[in-house]
Specification:
By secondary structure, the chain is α+β, with helices and mostly antiparallel strands. It has helices at about 45-55, 120-125; strands at about 5-15, 15-25, 30-35, 35-40, 60-75, 80-90, 105-110. The chain has one domain (about 5-125): Nucleoside Triphosphate Pyrophosphohydrolase (Alpha-Beta Complex). The chain is about 15% helix and about 45% strand. It is globular. The protein starts with a strand and ends in an 8-residue tail after the last helix.
């Protein structure tokens, strides 16, 4: 039986910008997304957030807080995710591409003028009128 998977996405804030990466070689190829990945069995959401950001960007995060969630159905790929968003700030380091087979680049972008196309969970998050700087 197919069941939804749990994704954890980190909305990392720096001044008035958020960190986005351009996905490749996975569902959502060519879209812009927050750092993130799968919640592993027995792992806390906070531990997943810290692990994924370090693996993907090489930075440490601080001031973690839970944000909203989205219900994301990728029809073409036949995948279903519940995405849990975690807000954070950079504790140390500068984002670098640590997994070049999965990400082309990391960029600090303005929430209102994000590059397109956006990964489905971000599109669904924006439909909720969520704003990371008023959360």
């Amino acid at each position: 039986m197919n069941r939804p998977r749990i994704g954890v996405a980190m909305i990392i804030r720096k001044q008035d910008r958020v960190l986005l990466g351009k996905r490749k070689n996975a569902h959502g190829d060519g879209t812009w997304a927050f750092p993130g990945g799968h919640l592993e069995y027995g792992e806390s959401i906070e531990a997943c957030a810290r692990r994924e950001v370090m693996e993907e960007c090489g930075i440490e995060i601080q001031n973690l807080s839970f944000g909203p969630f989205t219900n994301d159905i990728f029809e073409v790929e036949n995948k279903h995710y519940i995405t849990l968003f975690v807000l954070a700030e950079v504790a140390s380091g500068e984002p670098t591409v640590k997994e070049p087979d999965k990400c082309d680049a990391w960029e600090w972008v303005d929430w209102e003028t994000m590059p397109q196309p956006l990964f489905l969970p971000i599109r669904n998050l924006k439909k909720q009128a969520f704003h990371p700087f008023s959360a």
